[in-house]
Amino acid sequence: MHHLLTLIVLLPLAGFLLNGLAGPRLGKRFVTAVGCGLPILAFLATVQCVLTLNAAGDPLVERVYTWARIGESTFDVAFYFDRLTAVMTLIVTGVGSLIHVYSVGYMKEDKGYARYFAYLNLFLFFMLLLVLGRSLLVLFVGWEGVGLASYLLIGFWFEDAEKARAGKKAFIVNRIGDAGFLVGMFVLYSTLGTLDMDRINAAFMASPMPAVSASLVGILLFIGATGKSAQIPLYVWLPDAMAGPTPVSALIHAATMVTAGVYMIARLSGIYVHAPEASQVIAVVGVLTAFFAATIAIAQTDIKRVLAYSTISQLGFMFVALGVGAYGVAIFHLYTHAFFKACLFLGSGSVIHALSGEQDIRKMGGLAKKIPVTFVTFAVATAAIAGLPPLAGYFSKDEILWFAFASERGGSPLLWGLAAGTALLTAFYMFRLLWLTFFGRSRMTPEVEHHIHESPFSMTSVLVVLAVFSAIGGFFSIPHFLEPLLPMPEAKQELHHLETPLVVVSVVLALLGLAAAAFFFGRDAERANRLRPRFAGLQKLLYDKYYIDELYDRLITRPLYWISDRVFLRIGDRALLDGTLNGLAGLAQRTAGALGRVQTGNLHLYALFVLLGSLACLLLVWRHV
Amino acid sequence: MADKVPLLLSLAVAIFALGLLGVVVRRNVLVMLMCMELMLNGVNLSLVTFAHQTGTAVGAVLVFLIFVVAAAEIAIAIPIVLLLVRSKRTLDLDAYTDLKG
Amino acid sequence: MSEPALLNVVLYLPVAGILLLLAVPREQESLMRWLSFAVMVVQLVFTVMLYSRFDSADPGLQFETRLPWIPDWGVYYHIGLDGMNVLLVMLTAFLGPLVVAGSFSAITKDVKLFYAMVFLIQFAMLGTFVAQDLFVFYLFWETMLIPMFLIIGIWGGERRIYATLKFVLYTAFGSILMLAAVIYLVYSLYTSTGVTSFAFTDLYKTELPLRVQTVLLAAFALSFAIKVPMVPLHTWLPDAHVEAPTAGSVILAGVLLKMGTYGFMKLGFPLFPDATQFFAPTIMTLAVVSIVYGACLALVQTDIKKIIAYSSISHLGYVMLGLISLDLLGIQGAVIQMVSHGLTAAGLFLMVGMIYERCHTRELAAYGGLAKLLPVYSVFFMILTLASVGLPTTSGFTGEFLVLLGAFRSAWAQYQQGIGYPLAVSVTAVTGVVLGALYMLWFAQRFLFGTDKAPHQPLKDLDFRERAILATIVAAVFALGLFPDSALQKTELAAKQYQQLVATERAKMGRSVQRVATESTTRSAP
Q: How far is it between the farthest Cα atoms of chain B?
């Protein structure tokens, strides 16, 4: 009982080691048993921990060992379990286990089966380190570790250079964020002398406050969050990450890893409560990202890419909530998003599986009757993300919109306006996706159509479970559960009366989005196709993601290579440094050659020199005697 | 005999100088060796003179030393010259420039 | 075995190895190889004994031997272990068997001479680390040149003569200046205290004016900076690495480069604290330049050994940053980074050697998709690459994190007092983690992933010997990454001593008025 938290973390690690080292030799059954069984055990252990949390929500703390002691600094590896951790850990192990089970069916034919489950368990290990860690150091270990797992899993089919490159891009863009994160950690350590998050929060909540700008720290840590949670400007890796297997996209790039940034900021709410400037930045970046990504999503044609941009957009919502001080609400949305986004991704996986690998929605259609379970679960999840009551997404999104409007800590109509606009677009592009994929006449090739089949039970069962949670999950009020830990911000008094009207507005927006999608994309997208030529330029801009990737390439990547090659290598190292060296060596050689001409080999000359030399010496002695 | 000392010393210097000149000027290797011997003998003469002048035996002992060293030196030098001549086929010193550079 | 004797045994075992080798007949190459391996393993066993008996709580020298050698000059044969060199001695002994085992199939001519040179260089390196007398130190320092010259020059690649001459002349040039400085230093000690001594502890007590310290520090620093290598004195390293045989590269990257940083830590900075503090911004700048410049250059190389060579320059920039930060976290981080780099660079060079033995090319463009052709190889390669990049749970992270944290903490404190430059430099250093990931992952990408291509297929994956070598290194990497505390405890007291020697109060006072550029005055002898 005392080491339950450590057990939770170590179970997936054991899975990684077993499957990684012995998996290929011990066969699929072993891999499946270990690969799925251990996460499920971890989930059960988590439930046990939640039950042992007392009513006051006092945290469970487990110190595992001391990593380093230097002078007066001690770095411990310790785990910390309070209500926030409970929510996160349940999501990670719960949804994680479900996705592991789904993968059994999805990856059945893949020859890297054991390697896949090993990596997936490795990911789970690092993610649990991240959410259970007491100090920022342990969190950072988990933070980087999930980046590694992501790298390995995105590039899982590494024989395809493109896919491998997507993995590399993810790791490097994440690292850029991590640089900011590290500096933030360093500032915290230099001023507070500790990296334990509970102590950091306490220090900022105490008075007098520490002599460091909370906003500075807040922004530095947020830079790390933009990398991991795909916000502007470091979101560019997420769409490319869709190169990995679909369950990976569901687990890592929807439900868990990308939410790490949200978790980190919520965990350090003590800092952000006192950092209005940083919170403002977070809210603005969040809403801009949300809107920006939503506009791109409406023009994408790959089923996974739509969902990827949707994830970026929904994460933006979470950051809006964080930015206006509604930390519990952000976690609430994280929780509901985990269900419906995982359901959507896994549903898309089911579609891709049914269509023997097709991912382009222009080549789908009419699947509703052919793969009914997939269709129904996908539809439920779509309705949830659009915010239709009483599904889960409605509750969480609504709270966010309310606080975006009315929070004392930064709510404004402008913020609400952009967020509401994004909600409208969300409903629109999600239902567009639903229509194009499942309704209308089939646009598939006969070959593909012939092989359509519903996915196996291991996959559909998971879809059903997730759809159910997408439907009813909203009834468990996470913000209320987290209230003692993360108090809700006050809403501006004069705006209280607008609460109900705003709810009505958001429902109306969701229905409007649904209607618009049905209007344009119903009946085989007849009207959309008619209108497309008129908006060709805009459509291309959105489809090509505003050319941001190309911009980065031109502004950063290519100049970096150019400077490294032209300036540093050719001018610096070769011409300047080596040139100087070789020049000096050449000078020495030439001088030696010139001086060597004295050696004529003529003994008479030598004898003459000896004679002259001795005469000179004699004269010198004579003079000084 | 004391008044003969300057004369003997001048003679010694003259022999030494002739020998030195010969080493520097002459091109024939064997003649160079002979001139080197001349130099040594010049020194010998001066040593004997000084020995006689001071009445000690130190100078004479040194002369014996020089005899021995000169003999050893010639014993080695002549064969070296012979080998050199055998490879270069000339006694001209200017032909021996292998140590050039 | 008595304590001082144990250290001497460890030190002279390679010499015994040379003598044993001489007795082996020329044709029995297999015997030579296994004999060398056995001797190295025995040395490792004894070193482990030394390491485990090392007392972390004792601030003085342990396993000390002090015998008069040239008493009139104050030269004593004085060797001992303290926190500063114990880890490096362990690293050297650890890499010894790996170097020998790694060259079993690579060296086929003049085998006896080769292993004799390996032993000689092992002797020289260990001697440099354990020497406590400046004369002995210098002697061992110079001894290291000749075997390295021969190793690169005889068993190296095409441009080996150029590379080895460059290495030797460059290093020797620095050493000559250092010799002059050594002599002057001892002379100053004599004139100020009347004592002639080459012992470190005596020399630490010299108090010289800032101007003199600057010149002497420059002379010492030149020699050490060439060795580290610090930009702009680094251009010998890529050539030396590329042309050296695998064992040569492993020795070079694994241990030899640490001799430079060890020289700074043991001699350069503590002997001249005022000059060190005065020039700290310059040294810090050069360290960060090494980090960034090395990483950028690694990005545009086409020869796989050069990539790792430039990455070494980048990694050792972190060590210098940690040392000059004068913050205990930074110093300890620097020590760990030294060991970590020794392990990862050695591992990567061994892996390059393994692939070279199979495919006979070092051009990156010739390779691709090795993850499919050589899966076991790729796993080890990936682990070592990530350790090099500083992934948490590996030793690279421990080193880099502590160095950056220490440098930042020290810079932050200075920022509070109004000096902003170190802070800017520290933040720039953090970008090193991004650049590091960039070039290493780019390398891994071209090398391991994508369509498979490699000359001389079909390729055989790693055999038992190769796997054993790499597994040992990987185990050490993870041990230092997950449980660095045991190593850190051993070095802590020495790190504190270093900090006290360099960050003296007098020096700090001098630094606070450095903007007015005054000098501290000479103190008269007591």
A: 53
**Is residue B99, in this structure, part of any structural domain at all?**
no
Q: How many domains does chain A have?
A: 1
Which residue(s) pair with C81 in the sheet?
Answer: C62
Is there a domain that residue B100 lies in?
no
Q: Give SS3 for A5.
A: helix
Residue A201 in domain: no
In a domain, B71, yes or no: yes
Residue C69, φ and ψ in degrees, nearest 5: -120, -65
Q: Searching chain C, which residue's CA lies closest to the CA of residue A576?
A: C232
Structural domain of residue A375, as residue ranges?
Answer: 276-543
The alpha carbons of chain C give a radius of gyration, in whole angstroms, of 22
Question: Quick check: B101 and A601 CB within 8 A?
Answer: yes
- pTM equals 0.88
| CATH at B41 | 1.10.287.3510
Q: Confidence band (pLDDT; 50, 70, 90) for C475?
A: very high
Q: For a pLDDT cut of 70, what percent of chain A falls above it?
A: 100
Nearest-by-CA chain A residue for C426: A183
Asked whether residue B25 is assigned to any structural domain, the reply reads yes
How many other C-beta atoms are found inside a 10 Å radius of the C-beta of residue C68?
Answer: 11
Give A99's contacts (C-beta < 8 A, 6+ positions apart). Answer: A120, A247, A250, A251, A255, A342, A346, A462
The Cα A279–Cα C42 span in angstroms is: 61
Answer yes or no: do A69 and C441 touch at CB < 8 A. Answer: no
- pLDDT tens column, A156-176: 888 888 888 888 899 999 999
- Partners of A185 on chain C (C-beta within 8 Å) are 405
Domain, as residue range, for B54: 2-94
- Taking all residues of chain A, what is their mean pLDDT, rounded to a whole number? 88
ipTM for the whole complex: 0.90
Q: Is residue A537 part of a domain?
A: yes
Chains near B, with 3+ CB pairs < 8 A?
A: A
Higher pLDDT, A567 or A79: A79
Q: Do chains B and C touch (3 or more CB pairs under 8 A)?
A: no
Residues of B engaging A, defined by a Cβ cutoff of 8 Å = 20, 23-24, 27, 93-94, 96-101
Chain A contacts of C442, Cβ < 8 Å?
168
Taking residue A98's Cβ as centre, other Cβ atoms within 10 Å add up to 28
Which residues of chain B lie closer than 8 angstroms to A593, CB-CB?
Answer: none
Tokens representing A565? 């090659």
Report yes or no on A40 lying in a domain.
no
